Predict the structure of TetR/AcrR family transcriptional regulator.
Amino acid sequence: MRKKDFTKRDNIIQAAMDLINERGFSDTPMSQIAKKANVSAATIYVYFDNKEDLINKLYFHSKKKMRDYVMSNYDENATVEERYKQYLRKFIQFLVNNQQEFLFIDQFQSSPLLNEEVSESISQLFQQFHSIYDEGKETNVFKNVDTTIIAGFTINPAMQFVRDYHAKTLSLTESMIDDIIQMSWDAVKYKD
């Protein structure tokens, strides 16, 4: 068995992300990924079972990078509102500053390629933050609606604004980010 060289693995991941963002999933053959990563096609199979495995692991890699950024300096003792706003701000910052990861995540989330194992792993990655939804509902900070709806109002508008930013149809200023965060908060918080 060949010893794994994680520099090669990282090169394969980066090459796959670049090509998939440029060409899409179906128009990115493993041979092109190998060429761009400067490895043989056989080398890819040392690290990944097949193209679907590579794509799922690339998605996990991107989401983990996002989670690590978003959850850095996360204050468990802050109020639900403070944690919610901090999370959303860092989420937007990550997506704005990491265009390749954003483009890949956005494309992948619209595809049927996510496997169950990776889906569960990603849920565990974000469990620390997702528990805030339950806490917010239990303490009547959030509206008493399905958690999926609260999460959707947290993530989806931010994704659309970042999508427009990367498409160069929107100039996303700090003031606009503040407004996006406040409007998202207003949409999910419980009103007396």
